[in-house]
Amino acid sequence: MDGDTPVTRTVHAQPFDFRFELASSALVIIDMQRDFIDPGGFGASLGNDVSLLEAIVPACQRTLQAWRAAGGLVLHTREAHRPDLSDCPPAKRLRGNPRLRIGDAGPMGRVLISGQPGVEIIAALAPLPGETVVDKPGKGMFHATPVQEWLQRAGIRSLLFMGVTTEVCVQTSMREANDRGYECLVLEDCTESYFPAFKAQALAMIRAQGGIVGWTAHSDALLAALGADVPDTI
Ligand code: C5J
């Protein structure tokens, strides 16, 4: 922890340096769940190349370890609905892939339903006892969840994002957070899309116009700001 005197940390980011204090920051890990990432899950069964998403796991793991070692707060989200689908509007369900919709029986249980194996966070990033896990029925993490109250209670002002997919749940959550006044940084090598061009464009949009939605940075820059060991790529 920062101790009695808050220490301001500086991450070399785009479009300019991102400053935060550990005690008023949370690392938000969006939807790193088995159905999106594991071979043999829902994402793979729809023909997506999940190896793209799997590839960010080591960087996420390293960043999470460094963040935990520094004493930072962690919030995990999962995209998940109630078993009776009462929180899944038809507009969302019916626009999904007709071959496998939310609530259907998929390769890892019912697709995007709380409590099903496919909704579990992958083992490499499993939450520790005491870390908060929020099931969110929307793409954004504030819609129909207690996230805003949780962040306010914890005195959080800055959010650092990892997870999938960049242009859907990560970007939506970040935009919602930005509108609520949080300072948001997305870690470029800790987020991914099934469509690399969408990831590149989402990151470009976030940091455009002087950081219209927030900042982006490589995780090595965060590790350096935390005083953690940085691989020799920076
Ligand atoms: C997430 C999705 N988590 N792409 N969901 O981004 O539908």
UniProtKB/TrEMBL annotation:
PANTHER family: FAMILY HYDROLASE, PUTATIVE (AFU_ORTHOLOGUE AFUA_2G08700)-RELATED, PEROXYUREIDOACRYLATE/UREIDOACRYLATE AMIDOHYDROLASE-RELATED
Classification via InterPro entries: Isochorismatase-like_dom, Isochorismatase-like_hydrls, Isochorismatase-like_sf
Pfam families: Isochorismatase (PF00857)
Protein keywords: Hydrolase
Protein name from the UniProt record: Cysteine hydrolase
Origin superkingdom: Bacteria
Residue ranges annotated for the Isochorismatase-like domain, each copy included: 25-213
GO molecular function term, any single one: hydrolase activity
Species name: Xenophilus arseniciresistens
